[in-house]
């Protein structure tokens, strides 16, 4: 029962932040889900719930999507998804968490120091590839998108809508690949059903919060979340 209460709290907070920023559910939720479940179970629960958020939100935010950027991200992810599946099946999750966490911390510090990135088609494609790899491997596609969009100065409306649309594709394909090659478990689907009500409440609260967040506050929240996620991944892998 305590684990379920903790699950409800994790999902409520992560869904609120996901809906108000466009990227937080997996970044916040997955590290805490690792505390409650075996790695592969936590990853699949995160993917199922993140997919639910994208399905629920996509119609509302469809007009804000940068469609050409979305296509390039998806094209890049097709390569990354298969590479990530191999990591999911055969590589020690602890080593991957250490590598990803260290990279996030280094790049976040560079962004805080006002590092800027020039957006190009090739970099859009590459970002999608890295994001796809992280989706099927550890269920966290957000950091590459967030770091890239922060570096190029993407508006919060475009960031939220385009990433949610991208997640709709990448999470669905990742879930199908994982189940096809490694199966699933009853625990994944029971936990996901328990988490669905707080997920819906978090989505509703997040939409209210989004209208009240300025671009400056949005950037501060971005950096805080990246620093937390990078630090947690490194510490938890030791």
UniProtKB/TrEMBL annotation:
Keyword Chaperone: no
One annotated Gene Ontology cellular component of this protein: plasma membrane
This protein's UniProt keywords: Cell membrane, Membrane, Transmembrane, Transmembrane helix, Transport
Record-annotated membrane-spanning stretches: 34-57, 69-89, 95-113, 164-181, 193-210, 217-235
Pfam families documented for this protein: TauE (PF01925)
Main localization category: membrane
Cross-referenced InterPro entries: TM_pro_TauE-like, TSUP
Membrane topology: Multi-pass membrane protein
Assigned protein family: Belongs to the 4-toluene sulfonate uptake permease (TSUP) (TC 2.A.102) family.
Annotated protein name in UniProt: Probable membrane transporter protein
Source species of the chain: Brevibacillus panacihumi W25
